[in-house]
Design brief:
With about 425 residues, the protein is an alpha+beta fold. It folds into three domains: about 210 residues, 3-Layer(aba) Sandwich (Rossmann fold), CATH 3.40.50.300; about 90 residues, Translation factors (Elongation Factor Tu (Ef-tu), domain 3); about 100 residues, Beta Barrel (Elongation Factor Tu (Ef-tu), domain 3). Helix content is about 20%, strand content about 35%. It is built from nine helices and 21 strands. A six-stranded mixed β-sheet has the order 2-3-1-4-5-6, with helices on both faces. Strands 7-8-13-11-10-14 form a six-stranded antiparallel barrel. The protein has a six-stranded antiparallel barrel with strand order 15-19-17-16-20-21. Strand 16 and strand 17 form a beta hairpin. It is globular.
Length: about 425
């Protein structure tokens, strides 16, 4: 996969050949069954897992193997037949590795969907072919747009229950396309499937000769994600300073972290923020590398050595000298509220942004968003669990940020209750 600097870089291939995707949709649209089908048909489950779901299927008195049990891992979920938590699963094909977040469909678990989707490259939104585009479809698609997920697959499921009607499929495509015209999702694809029977999931189905696209797995394997990360703005939030405590490496001093944007190379002139001190990169080291790296880029984890001994600590950021981020105490942000205790205007919280933690206060609630209609509700100051709203925050120290639209890594944050240490909100800087 190409980069702007080295299209044949092995490190780039390893870093970018992982696709994170999430599933979303209304209750009983078949999200867990779809993920189970992907795992089962791509032979990504172990024999003991298969035996376990065979026993569970038999105990439930079901005739067809219930593949949803592969992801509905909580006992409460199995008893209720619903997904109530984010279930992460890992599998791989010869073309690509995958991390799947199977998220809940219930409206009261919107916060779980936000959690699962926050790091996703792609979202699969399931639509029941019988019901078409409904309120939950719009809600989850809006959240995917708000979280800047660049790729969306609309999987029109249960096509077998509408006799694989091309007319019905086209009607749903038109319904969703009209709604999606108000969203900011650059890449949307539609696939007719039957998760229960596996049609168009791993292999193309002869039941939909009118469908000219690829199967779902092929689409997941081939979607191009090389441009999803920001490779323009060099951002390196420092996680820790490495100073080995032994004679053999007594001269070594490195700064460890995960690159949040841009490309770094030995010889680059850098600025350390917030101090403003400058230096030059002498070496880059990566996990498992046999020697120093020729370059490093988002989202690689590396150690950076500098030519000068300047004071840098956790929470600082290394950037290119001519391209700094914003550095302000005051930020405008869209938040999703996670806590059962409602947001308190003027309330004080901890903000965790990249590797920096600071105290902050919510100064103003600008408006609340009705995520069913996408309308702004400017008179409503009350933001409760699963609500979205725009707020004005003031931190105790300047934060080093880019807008979430430009860089999800430096534009996202969480708010924490400093007394209970509970995460109360996730935010996106505007």
């Amino acid at each position: 996969m190409p980069t702007a600097t080295n299209p044949h870089s092995d490190q780039h291939y390893l870093a970018m050949d992982l696709l994170r995707f999430t599933t979303a949709g209304s209750v009983d649209d078949g999200k867990s069954t779809l993920i189970g089908r992907l795992l089962y048909d791509s032979k990504a489950i172990f024999e003991d897992q298969l035996e376990a779901i065979e026993r569970a299927t038999e105990q439930r008195g079901e005739e067809t193997l219930n593949l949803s049990l592969l992801t509905d891992g909580l006992r409460a979920e199995r008893e209720q037949g619903i997904t109530i938590d984010v279930a992460y699963r890992y599998f791989a094909t010869p073309r690509r590795k995958f991390i799947v977040a199977d998220t809940p469909g219930h409206i009261q678990y919107t916060r779980n969907m936000v959690t699962g989707a926050s790091t996703a490259n792609l979202a699969i939104v399931l639509v029941d072919a019988r019901k078409g585009v409904i309120e939950q479809t719009c809600r989850h698609s809006f959240i995917a747009s708000l979280l800047r997920i660049p790729h969306l697959i609309v999987a029109v499921n249960k096509m077998d229950l509408v006799e694989w009607s091309e007319a019905r499929y086209n009607e749903i495509v038109a319904q969703f396309s009209e709604f999606a015209s108000r969203l900011e999702i650059p890449d949307i694809k539609f696939i007719p499937i039957s998760a229960l029977h596996g049609d168009n999931v791993v292999e193309k189905s002869p039941k939909s000769p009118w469908y000219q696209g690829g199967a779902l797995l092929y689409t997941l394997e081939t979607v191009y994600i090389g441009s999803d990360h920001n490779h323009i703005d060099a951002r390196f939030p420092v996680q820790t300073v490495i100073r080995p405590n032994n004679d053999a490496h007594h001269d070594f001093r490195g700064f460890a972290g995960r690159i949040a944007g841009g490309v770094f190379k030995p010889g680059d002139e850098i600025t350390a923020l917030p101090s403003g001190r400058t230096s030059r990169i002498t070496a880059l080291h990566g996990p498992g590398a046999t020697g120093p790296l020729a370059e490093a880029f988002s989202p690689m984890s590396v150690v950076i050595n500098l030519a000068d001994e300047i004071d840098i600590s956790r929470g600082d950021m290394i950037v290119k000298a001519n391209n700094p981020p914003n550095a302000t105490k005051d930020i405008e942000a869209m938040i999703c509220w996670f806590s059962e205790a409602k947001l308190v205007p003027g309330g004080k919280y901890l903000i965790r942004h990249t590797t920096r933690e600071a105290k902050c206060a919510i100064k103003v609630v600008r408006y609340k968003i009705n995520i069913n209609t996408l309308h702004k509700v400017e008179g409503d100051q009350e933001i409760g669990m699963n609500d979205f709203g725009r707020v004005h925050l003031r931190a105790s120290v300047p934060l080093l940020w880019d807008s979430y639209q430009r860089n999800r890594a430096t534009g996202g944050f969480i708010l924490v209750d400093e007394f209970t240490n509970a995460t109360v909100a996730a935010g996106m800087i505007l």
